[in-house]
Amino acid sequence: MQSYAEARQKRDFFLFILAGAFLGLYAGLYEPSFNNYLNDVFHISEVARGGLEFPRELPGFLVVFTTGLLLFLPDVRIAVVANLVLALGLLGLGFLSPGFTWVVVWMMVWSVGAHLYMPLEASIGVSLAKPGEEGKRLGQLGSAKTAASLVGFLLVWLGFHYFHIDYSLLFGLAGLCAVAAAVCLLLMTPRPSKNKRPKLLFKRKYLLFYWLNVLFGARKQVFLTFAPWVLIKIFDQHVTTFAALGLVCTVTGIPFRALLGKAIDKFGERAVICTESLLLVLICLGYGFANNLGLGSLAIWLVFLCYVGDQLLFACNMARATYLNKIADSPDDLTPTLSMGLTIDHAVSMTIPFFGGLVWMKLGYQYVFLGAAVIALLNLWAALKIPAGSSIAGHLSVSAD
């Protein structure tokens, strides 16, 4: 009986890794293409692009409530639903978007599925791990997704560069990958989750953590929305550029995350977030003023460098999680406080891009990134409020991812 249970667990883990690979492939197809799709097919303005983030991020803000509607299902079955919804959104973007209104509809459908699955992935991975091997299992999942996303980036680059594929085919393939992931998850054995369902927790003690999430949400959305838009609108870059940059970011991100984890352990969260903030100021200035430095054709390479650096620094969000880990009153506070942080993050993410689009229209894109530099300086100020690493006694365990 024990051997049967072990065999079933190994089978389920293989299916879970396979589902992760399909989702990594979908991400590699979709992520470098969406902004160019909006520009090439619908020619939207910077204000419309900024405003689009409100409906795109709204499902992330509501994810705790969305998950609550499906409490009667095991995690694996909710994950099936999430990936089918995600696939529907992608297929709708590819084949059922005759106008921009339908793009918004299908993008929201995609976002519901994507945000619904995010908190489930770690929960399912942990449920398939032996005690003490949770990190190993999640690391294996991350490796599979990373390898598959590299294949996706390469397919986008080859497809647009040599075979002149269109966005409908690209989103169709991404949608089929999500369907394949759902099938893999459907074949798994449902089991109770070892993690609690996401809840929200607000404590005065964690105010600095919440404030760091506000600033991260603002910083994140400025770069996710307007950094690609600078490359598209100001430097006239094609989708193949984003596929190539995705390859570079993914390959360099693997050793960077490992080094970053060691840096957090050695120097503490305050040093890491302060360094992140100072580097972000430089990146903001690079995005905004590369064209004004007299670099000529080299200006675009400075922006490429800023893009890669910006993407790598997203990993510094793990320092916020480890900071919370060190100050939490009990292990039971971790998941609901992280969920509250994610909700706050998305509340900011929904609003910042709209005002950024207005600033771009009225004053120019440079001022969007000057504003982002101010956010980075506020992040520096907040990070200086974190006690030195040695003065916070770590007592819990939380995944850095």
From TrEMBL:
Superkingdom of origin: Bacteria
Keywords: Membrane, Transmembrane, Transmembrane helix
Topology versus the membrane: Multi-pass membrane protein
GO molecular function: transmembrane transporter activity
Gene3D superfamilies in UniProt: MFS general substrate transporter like domains (1.20.1250.20)
Any one GO cellular component localisation term in the record: plasma membrane
Organism: Desulforamulus hydrothermalis Lam5 = DSM 18033
Name used for this protein in its record: Major facilitator superfamily MFS_1
Transmembrane segments annotated in the record for this chain: 12-30, 58-73, 169-188, 208-232, 238-259, 337-361, 367-384
ATP-binding found in the keyword field: no
Keyword match Cell membrane: no
Subcellular location: Cell membrane
